[in-house]
Structure formats: C-alpha cells, structure tokens
C-alpha cells in the first residue's frame, strides 16, 4: 500500500515538474557566427508539425511581447500540440549585457538568427508569428526561405523602407524625445500614449530602467534603416498570411497597404480596436486557431462562434495545395474540422 502511495506521489510530482517546465520554457543560449542566440522553447517537441517561431518588436523582448498571449488559457491547446520557439533579437533578452561602445548592429542580424534557429533545431517547417520589427524580420526570412514557412501571422507590419519624410521626422524625434518616448510612440497609438494608461506606464518604466537600453537603441536604429520588402502581387509571400493591425495603430496605413499587395486568396486581415496581444488575447487566439486549422492542423479543436462587429474585418479564401488545405474561409458558424462551404468570403467579426 505504501509503495503504491509513493509511486502515485512520484508520478504527481513528475507531472507538476513537467507542467512548470512547459510554462517556463527551456532557455537556450547558442553560440553562432553572428553572436549569442537566445531562444526559449515551449511545448512537446513534435517534429511532425511545424514549430511556431516568434520574433518580438523593438522595445520589447520575447517575454514582454508574447507572454500574455501564449500563457492565455485557451492557447494551451496549441502549446500542447506544437513546439513554440521564441527568438530574441541580439542583446534584447532579459538580463542581456550592454554591447561594447562601437558595436555594429547589422540589419540582417535578426534574419540570420531565424536561419540559425531553424537549422539548429532541425525544424521541418515553421509558422511565424511576428510583431512590428519581428513581423518584418519573419517576412524577410520567408521571402528567402519560402519552403520553410507554412504560414505567417504578422502584427503591425511595415514592409516599406523609411522615406525622406520619415527620416526627417525620426531625426527631429531623436532631438526632442528620449529613446523611451520614441519606443512608446512606436508601440502605441497617439491616443494611447496621451492617455498614459497603466499599460503605457508599465512599458515606460520597463524600457527606461532596462540595463541594456543601449542595445535597444541599436535595434531601433537598425529597424529604421530597413530595406523595402518589395512585395507585390507578382513577388509575394507564398504561404497563408494573417495580418493584424490595431485601429489607429502607428503602422495602420502600412499594414493596409501590405494587405493590398498580398495574394487575397491566402490572406486574412484583422483590424481590432484595441491592443489585441496584451488586452484581449482570447480574440486573437480564436482567429489563430482558425488560421492553423486552415493549414490542416488541429481539425478537431472546438471553436466558439465569432460574433459580428463593425470594428474588425477578416477575409480569407480556401484553396488546395497538394493533399492539404493551405487557407481557409473564416465563417461565422464554422466549427473545428469543417471545410468552408464556398471558395471565398468577407465578413465582419468581433476581435
């Protein structure tokens, strides 16, 4: 009897330890020709499915950018079924030491890190989730490695290089605003920063007190010197794409323009009225599950119904490539595993 109790306790302790490990993730520091690569891995290590590869925005790191979303209760079904890999841009991870004076942060550092991460873990393919600068990096990676990426979720993307007007405005901002305030104007809308909400205040404090603030500035300058992605209908992302941009977000116009250049038969567009990653992860979780189902994964996952709203538009189409569906119509009454009834659909959904 005692032995049985002891075994039961040991199994329970092992389950608790596994749960903690899954929640916290396994952090890896990998030496590469491009510097130290910091990666946090969550999930089962299932190699039969693509890994979910994330890349964060400027002024953030993987934890502050994605923790709320990926730790949300309804996201756990996805985390249990996929390997989730969070990649930090050079010197941006928590506790990173400041780079020495004169360090050159090359614009392709983020791209190189995605490539190294992909080959280091021997991923068959990935589904990319990028925010801001991370969305740009993952788009470049996909354009260079189209067979390695099955789908992209791009939040607040700006695919364009900075023009002369943008360059002049940035120069003025550099002279009149602190780096912290520049980061906040990049991360939040003018209305949000003027309102000085608790969320804005917490990010202001986090950035201003960051010990690696000089590294953040290097990443910021690198992002501002980005090249144009040169996306158009003839030279576009070949995988299904879900674009997400907040209403009145700093890069709203750029995201709308990007949507006009992508293939409408494989592109979904969400325009929520709030900061969806940080304030309403449930809505993005729902859309993300539909997106994954459109690629033929988690077909039995149960979905709640998306209700109508004027604040968000979402369009997608359905086509067949090989033996698997590559894109999917998000219809109001769709349930997990059911194919859409028609080739295309445009609708209003609540997000």
UniProtKB/TrEMBL annotation:
| InterPro entries for the chain | AB_hydrolase_fold, NDRG
- According to the record, the segments passing through the membrane are none
Q: Which intervals of the chain are annotated as region Disordered?
A: 315-351
The family database entries (Pfam families) matched by this protein are listed as:
Ndr
Q: What's the family?
A: Belongs to the NDRG family.
Protein name listed in UniProt:
Protein NDRG2
> What species is given as this protein's source?
Pygocentrus nattereri (Red-bellied piranha)
Tell me the organism's taxonomic lineage. Answer: Eukaryota, Metazoa, Chordata, Craniata, Vertebrata
């Amino acid at each position: 009897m005692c032995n049985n109790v002891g075994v039961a306790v040991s199994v329970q302790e092992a389950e608790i330890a596994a749960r903690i490990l899954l929640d916290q993730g396994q952090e890896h520091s990998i030496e590469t020709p491009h510097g130290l690569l910091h990666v946090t891995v969550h999930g089962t290590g299932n190699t039969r499915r693509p890994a979910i590869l994330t890349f964060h925005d400027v002024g953030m790191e993987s934890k502050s950018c994605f923790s709320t979303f990926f730790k949300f209760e309804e996201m756990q079904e996805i985390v249990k079924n996929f390997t989730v890999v969070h990649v930090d841009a050079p010197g941006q991870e928590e506790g990173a030491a400041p780079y020495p004076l004169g360090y050159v942060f090359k614009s392709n550092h983020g791209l190189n890190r995605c490539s190294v991460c992909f080959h280091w873990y021997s991923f068959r393919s990935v589904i990319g989730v990028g925010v801001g600068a991370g969305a740009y990096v993952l788009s470049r990676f996909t354009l260079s490695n189209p067979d390695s990426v099955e789908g992209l979720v791009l939040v607040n993307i700006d695919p364009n290089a900075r023009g002369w007007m943008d360059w002049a405005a940035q120069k003025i901002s550099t002279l009149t605003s602190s780096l912290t305030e520049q980061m906040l104007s990049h991360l939040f809308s003018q209305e949000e920063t003027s309102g000085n909400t608790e969320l804005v205040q917490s990010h202001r404090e986090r950035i201003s007190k960051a010990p690696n603030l000089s590294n953040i500035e290097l990443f910021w300058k690198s992002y501002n010197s980005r090249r144009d992605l040169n996306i158009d209908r003839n030279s576009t992302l070949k995988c299904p794409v879900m674009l997400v941009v907040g209403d009145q977000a700093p890069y709203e116009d750029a995201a709308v323009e990007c949507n006009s250049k992508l293939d409408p038969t494989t592109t979904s567009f969400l325009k929520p009225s709030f900061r969806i990653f940080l304030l309403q992860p449930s809505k993005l979780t729902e859309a993300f599950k539909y997106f994954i189902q459109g690629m033929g994964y988690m077909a039995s996952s149960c979905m709640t119904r998306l209700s109508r709203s004027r604040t968000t538009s979402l369009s997608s189409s359905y086509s067949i490539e090989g033996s698997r569906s590559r894109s999917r119509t998000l219809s109001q009454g769709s349930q997990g595993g059911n194919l859409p009834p028609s080739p295309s659909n445009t609708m209003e959904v609540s997000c």
